[in-house]
Amino acid sequence: MNKKIFALGISLLALVSCEMDFYPSDSMTSAQIKDNPNSAVLTTDGIYSLFKDNLPYKGESGGRDGNYYIRHIHQLSETRGDNVTISGNSEDPFTQPYQYKDVSDTKNKTYSWWIAYKIIYAANSNIDVIEPKDALTNQLLGENYFFRAIAHFHMVTLYAMPYVCGRDNPGVVLRIGMDYSKTERATVGECYDAIVADLKEAIKYMEKGKNRGGANDASYVTANAAKALLSRVYLFMGDEHLQDCIDLCDELIKAAPATVKSVYSVETLAAYPTATWSSPETIWCLRFTYPSDHQAPSATIGAMYNVTEESTNGWGEWYWNDELIELFNRYKNDDGTTKDNRFAAYFTYPWFPDTVVKNEGKKMVCFPVKEGKGDFCVTRAGTVGPDPKNEADMATGLLPNADGNYEFYYNKTKYTAVKTEVNGFTRYFINANLTGDPTFFDGKTPAYIREDVDEVAGWRNGDYVRYYNTKWSGQDGQVTMTSPVMLRWGEVFLNRAEALARIGGKDTEALEDVNQIRRRAGLPEEAMFKMTNYKERGYESVLDVVLDERRMELCFEGQRVFDVFRNKKALDRRYVGYHPFEVINYDDPRIALLISNDEILATDGFEQNNQK
């Protein structure tokens, strides 16, 4: 086996995090841990550091900006869904996974694999020697079982095919206990069984322990965190554990803080990323403290989503997909703004210099076009003007005509974005096939009516419209910083909703959970779902309702791609972006990321994923 990755006991690392010195388990022998009463605390806390620190890697003298585990895990998850779009290639190695054109030797792949097994090794070392004698040692032992479970879970969900494609498919290497002689990949089913077993152990021990963070600090793992993660794992395992998921969520929700069932105002939601660890909504987050844990502003997760005039260190390379925006915009106030507090809290346009002249009161129509970009679709913006043959005379922005339609010129041809009622909601379509796909909206082209600003200001980045996201912004006044939320109450409600929708005969109860989430997002009663109206709104099943609500509630949290594939749905990526205009089926072999080349080359007979 690759000694550099799995025989990690030889490395001696001292990490600094959370304003105190932590030492990961692989810097101490089992005897040292056992002999030192305080060492189990230090080595367990050191695992928290492994999620967020830059470690020297592959001969480096120091860690590289942006090269940390949770950032790579987030990128490898979120970009493969259908919520974000990017406008071009990047120095960051997320472009190929985003395009489902994978390579095996990029740092996000090799570093994630390396650190995941460091976490597993460290947890194994602690589990091997911690004797559960009191509340503290029970808690520590439970935390280590949790860490071993979540690291294996990350690996098997990223580097193997979905569970629903078969338990016997190749999973990842299982590291349970201190025996590292086995080098072959376990099956997907064996991996999931081990994860479930570890989380049950984590729950058992932490229920005898005590939350080390206290009542108002969610930065330490708890029994509730293990239950929440286990409820998610059960959803991944086909239909065989749906009742187990429901039972866990019932138990959690009965004891949930009352505030997580009340309305979340725009202000509350906007403030959430600034202090996730102290919010009642958070079950577990990775606590980043400022400035000791703050990565270079351009190397954070938030840097991908946002950049402002005051803090230009972000990249702002990931934008909202138009279809996600349309989903939020189904219910609007009289002034045209969305009624959904989640959208109002996290959606933002780019900043503009004071010299920019805006066409107040006008709109812009944007639409996808296949135009000289291979398989990609770009955005075009329609304009109006007295003489479409003279580009200089064209005005930016447009107003609806008497019928509520928008007439505009594109490439000196006149088009109309026709106001259309679709399942009770207003959308706009151009009666022309501009995407090159005759099956996409039956050959029509969706048009998106947006607030207009001068294109010269950079609202559009090349051929792509930019809409920024602030869900990862604002901690300690830093535009690109937050403490990443790993588990929260909104997901628990929706885990139960999904399980209820899938188990059969529980659709009404599933909609009640969906409506709970919608009410707390500030949506009015007419936006609630009933058994009598969901089909009128274009849904074939209650499960489809749940999946759309998960898409909105958990957007940009790295969950969408897994939600789709575990339900044997196809992922429709026919939207503007630097990716192929395609639909990806749940059993597409490209779903399983290629395993680190370091591992393949160092181990005879180690099986690589086949993406053909």
Main attributes of the structure:
612 residues, alpha+beta, Serine Threonine Protein Phosphatase 5, Tetratricopeptide repeat, 7-stranded antiparallel β-sheet, two-stranded antiparallel sheet, 18 helices, 12% strand, disordered N terminus
Present the secondary structure layout.
Layout: H1 3-6, E1 15-17, E2 20-22, H2 30-35, H3 39-50, H4 69-78, E3 84-86, H5 95-98, H6 107-129, H7 135-159, H8 188-206, H9 223-236, H10 242-254, H11 266-271, E4 282-285, E5 318-320, H12 322-328, H13 341-346, E6 347-348, E7 363-369, E8 378-384, E9 395-396, E10 406-410, E11 413-422, E12 425-430, E13 445-451, E14 460-461, E15 464-465, E16 468-469, E17 485-488, H14 489-503, H15 507-520, H16 542-553, H17 560-566, E18 571-572, E19 583-584, H18 597-602
Antiparallel strand pairs: 1-2, 3-5, 4-17, 6-16, 7-8, 7-13, 8-9, 10-11, 11-12, 12-13, 14-15, 18-19
Walk me through this protein's architecture.
With 612 residues, this protein is an alpha+beta fold. Among the domains are: 238 residues, Serine Threonine Protein Phosphatase 5, Tetratricopeptide repeat (Alpha Horseshoe); 115 residues, no CATH class. Helices cover 33% and strands 12% of the residues. It is built from 18 helices and 19 strands. The strands form seven sheets. A seven-stranded antiparallel β-sheet has the order 9-8-7-13-12-11-10, with no helix packed on it. A two-stranded antiparallel sheet has the order 1-2. Strands 3-5 form a two-stranded antiparallel sheet. α6 packs antiparallel against α7, α8 runs antiparallel to α9 and α15 packs parallel to α16. The protein is globular and about 80 Å long. The two termini are 26 Å apart. The N terminus is likely disordered.
